[in-house]
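Margin note: ligand = uracil.
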Amino acid sequence: MDSVEYHAALSALAWQVELGADECIGDAPVNRYDVPPPAPKPVPATVAPDGPVAPRSEDPVAVARAAAEAAQDLPALKAALAGYAHCELKRGARNLVFSDGVPGARVMIVGEAPGRDEDREGKPFVGRAGQLLDKMLGAIDLSREASVYITNVLPWRPPQNRDPKPEEIAMMQPFLYRHIALADPDVLVIVGNHACQALLGKRGITRLRGDWTQAQGKPAIPMFHPAYLLRNPAAKREAWADLLSLKARLRDG
Ligand code: URA
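Resulting structure:
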C-alpha cells in the first residue's frame, strides 16, 4: 500500500470508529445456533499384549528412518526431507535449509539449526555466526567454496530461534545420519551443544570441545558454536586450538 492509500485508509477507519463501528463483522452472517459437525473419530491404536501402541505409520521417527534410508544420494535425501510432513517446524519456516559447500569434501560441519538469515536464504550459516565460521575456516585454509561441506541438525528454523526440542532432534536424526553417510567426509566438526546431543548423545561443549571422538563411524571434533564465540570472544582462544587440531588431523590423516 503506498502512503496516500495508507493515510486515506487510516482516516476512513477513524471515521467509522467515530460513527460507532467498534467491532469487526464479517461479510457473511454466522449462525451461532448451528450444531457443528461431529469431530472425526481418532484412529484406534493397535493393542499389543503389553499395552496400546501407536499405529506404525504414525511414528514420526520410524517414518523419518524409512524415508532417509531409501535416499540413495544427496538430492534424493533433500527431496525426502522436503516431503517429510511430521515436523511442525516446517510449517513456520520459509525454506528448507539442507546444506552448503562441497558435497564429498573431507570436512563436514554439523551445526544446530537455521536462524533468520539462513531461513531466508535457504543456506546454513550465512548470518553473523556464519561469517565468523567462514573466517575461522579461512584461518586454516579451508572454505565452503573449496573444501568444506556444511549442514545442521534441524533443516527448518525453530520459531524465535528457540532451542530444538528433543523430539525434533529425534525426528531429524535419521536424516542427519544418512546425510553423513552419503556425504562421506573424512572428519566431522560438531559445533555446539545441540549437535553434540544429536551426534554424541551428550551435551557439555565446554568439556567435550577439542577432544577427538567418533560419530557415525567418523573421527569427530566438537567445537564451540560460532554464535557462542560472538557472545564470548575470550573463548576464541580454545576455538583456535581446536582449529589447529583439525588442521593437523587433515594433514596427517
Ligand atoms: N547457527 C547454526 O547452528 N546453523 C546455522 O545455519 C546458523 C546459525
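Residues 44-54 have pLDDT under 50 and may be disordered.
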